[in-house]
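Need a sequence for this fold. Nothing fancy.
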């Protein structure tokens, strides 16, 4: 069958092992100094391991692979203890994998472990480092800041976390059916009305086309975001300096890789914080 599964680039992988704790299913192991996918049936293809790889060596691709087996994965997971079980269940729930979640809960019931269904409502870390865990902020009620005399009043328009491309999960729910804003790192610091004028109503991706050396990784990562989701629009905003214009070319290559034709609304910000016309 054809399905999504993780792929590990051996040239990029340095064998640090940071991905291993974030794969409670037991699909990954360090073998001969490299992270390896040891069994397709244990990989759910949801990419919990991606955000913890400092080298960008892990991606998700759609290939011919053996079907994922939730029950066999649970046999590995329960060996790791209660916290790993809880993290796995939250992981499935956050990705909307209700079928797999029900299979996991049924497996636990058969083992006499019925406490986890009640604990699902508890807030728990689903994907490793709390700073990289995908958080959808769209459903939270927006409030303006309390009135402070003499202070500028504004509110955040940020709809998700994280925002840095290297940390993003391409399958996070806030990318589907979304208007996406792709911004060079310096733009939010340079443009004073970034939140209100550019970010409002959009999901955000940031990276630096000049200083980030592994551009091919960014093309691949963006390509996966575009191919895995229904994207309504793409706005690209970069600085006026020549090295920043590469952001748009990276987006074009990513769209070609994804086989998508989505117009890019390009905007340029001057180093004095103005938006250029045209």
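Here you go.
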């Amino acid at each position: 069958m054809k399905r999504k599964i993780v792929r590990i680039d051996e040239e990029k992988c340095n064998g640090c092992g940071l991905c291993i704790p974030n794969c409670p299913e037991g699909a990954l192991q360090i073998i001969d100094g490299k992270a390896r996918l040891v069994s397709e049936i244990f990989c759910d293809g949801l990419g919990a391991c991606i955000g913890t790889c400092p080298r960008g060596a892990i991606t998700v691709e759609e290939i011919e692979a053996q079907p994922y087996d939730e029950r066999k994965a649970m046999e590995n997971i329960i060996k790791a203890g209660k916290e790993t079980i809880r993290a796995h269940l939250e992981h499935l729930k956050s990705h909307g994998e209700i079928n797999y979640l029900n299979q996991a809960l049924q497996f636990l019931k058969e083992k006499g472990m019925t406490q986890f269904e009640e604990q699902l409502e508890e807030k728990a870390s689903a994907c490793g480092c709390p700073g990289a865990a995908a958080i959808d902020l769209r459903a939270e009620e927006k409030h303006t800041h309390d009135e402070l005399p003499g202070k500028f009043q504004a509110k955040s328009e940020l709809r998700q976390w994280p925002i840095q491309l290297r940390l993003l999960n391409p399958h996070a729910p806030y990318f589907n059916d979304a208007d996406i804003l792709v911004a060079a790192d310096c733009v939010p610091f340079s443009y004073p009305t970034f939140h209100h004028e550019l970010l409002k109503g959009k999901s955000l991706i940031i990276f630096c086309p000049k200083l980030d050396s592994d551009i091919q990784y960014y093309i691949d990562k963006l390509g996966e975001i575009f191919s895995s989701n229904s994207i309504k629009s793409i706005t690209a905003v970069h600085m006026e300096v020549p090295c920043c214009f590469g952001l748009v070319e990276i987006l074009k290559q990513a769209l070609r890789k994804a086989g998508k034709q989505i117009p890019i609304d390009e905007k340029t910000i001057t180093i004095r914080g103005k938006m250029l016309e045209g």
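For context: Strands lie at 2-8, 28-31, 34-37, 58-64, 135-136, 160-161, 178-184, 203-207, 231-239, 264-269.
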